[in-house]
Amino acid sequence: MTEFMSAEAPPLSGERLELDLLVWDAPNIDMTLSNVIGGRPSASSRPRFDAVAKWLLSTAEDREVEGAVFANVPPGGAATMRGWVEAIRSFGYAVFARPKLSASDDVDDDMLAHIADRARTHHLRRLVVASGDGRNFAGPLEDLARNGVDVSVLSFVEVAGYAQESDLLTFVDLEDVPGAFTTPLPRVRLDNLPEGGAWLQPTRSMRSLLTEAN
Question: Within a domain: residue 128?
């Protein structure tokens, strides 16, 4: 487990700069978005990184701001991902790319290591983690919050229960970020139902159960 220094730990040399940091778990956000909308995301249903950057900047005042996107590159995926990576970099984000050679080649530890490094080299004022993965992030993020860091989790209400139930973390639904999506996502949010209720349609045919192995 990555060790986090106290937000009030002494600087390594001189006075540390105040920092608002956003780290984005691309594999997790892509997977949970697919689950939320019940299918593969299209260009119109993927989040706009420029809008997320403007949202982060809107409260940063004169502090340093950094955005870092962590991604896995599967075999044969380099060509199709290159345009996406370059677009993100053009919005001011750094990208950490790890080859996906096995099931264990995830980016969670890399994200935690980067957060720990920035907590050591800067005065981390605000941290936004875009991930619904509570197994790896809940403990470390709550530790930082106890040490005075304003920690938010950016995900979807359908997941990220660890953040929604925490007294230390702030949860933000990604669709609530202004301009993050060009059109409303095809979803029904249980936290924002119309007064008269809403139908949630099945995500597959009931008859498909007959084809499953017993």
Answer: yes
